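Ligand-bound model needed. FE2/S2 (inorganic) cluster.
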Amino acid sequence: MLRISKLTDYGTLIVTQMAATPAQVVSATELADALGLGLATVSKVLKALGRHGLVLSHRGTRGGYLLSRPPEQISIADIVDALEEQPFGLTECSAGSGTCSLETGCRIRGSWIRINAVVREALQGVSIAEMTPPPDLSNAPSPASQRVSGPGRLARNAG
Amino acid sequence: MLRISKLTDYGTLIVTQMAATPAQVVSATELADALGLGLATVSKVLKALGRHGLVLSHRGTRGGYLLSRPPEQISIADIVDALEEQPFGLTECSAGSGTCSLETGCRIRGSWIRINAVVREALQGVSIAEMTPPPDLSNAPSPASQRVSGPGRLARNAG
DNA sequence: GCAAACTGTACTAAATTGGTACTGTATTTG
DNA sequence: CAAATACAGTACCAATTTAGTACAGTTTGC
Ligand code: FES
Ligand code: FES
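Prediction:
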């Protein structure tokens, strides 16, 4: 359907939320609460992000997660890579080798690989820092607007 | 998974195949045979392409389909639009309105809409004519290489 | 009238995704 | 050291989406 998965979407939401207070440890519970998502779901996403080095985790009583890099250096493509296990590519054939018996002769495969590259660049060109304006006003509750009732992607939960 | 659906993929394959002999009526059976796909599947794709005006159909004994435009004027985006019923957009929130309760206040939505536009341009910038070299050698069986055993995307069928 | 070929719908099975539960481990705190 | 907190990892089930096919109908050409 040419969509990123919801988990990936949550990833962008979570990282964006974390970018509001960079270099600060936030627990999965806090993030889940702030975004209106289930704790288990948020944990799943954070774990994947951690495996790919986008966030650092800290266990224990006052543990939590924090971004491993400044938001300017985290792109949408990074998050996609972390949360979609399969290799990047709009078609099965162009995502890797071995799937298609006609790889050597097929010419549309080359075209798809080119298309993939352009799409990927688009995702790489957008950083998390660009997703929301920088929090100049440290007092203004900039992410609070997201705390009202949770994102609509969760309409099911919100019932 | 950030993939187009297989049906859409078949669409590109079918239209590319038809572009090899433009302005010529080809039956769904012939296309299915040439590409190693099931007839019902090919019919389903062609019907959708017809509904969106990409191919013209002709019923009856010697009927079939033909491209409604020269291959240069058919883009990958056209095929995606025809075969993915849902509106274009990488995330649910950015594909349309009404899905999310935070639309008005949400700032990452704007970013996603921008990303969508770039991705869409990438798909619009590639025409079917670019997918394979133009058939200068009318004798050379350029599409024949695809007739060997069917695309690997169908490994299940071929197995 | 018969056969070829498209039209349209409906259904079933498979694959993927989404969400959650449960058990384990590390760290802080007192 | 014990208790509480929070991450780690796995495994599982439900919901959704996709893929493929079947079937009954209609149009056209011979
Ligand atoms: S690489 Fe699979 S059909 Fe071209
Ligand atoms: S528009 Fe849905 S979370 Fe932003």
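Residues 135-150, 154-159 of chain A have pLDDT under 50 and may be disordered.
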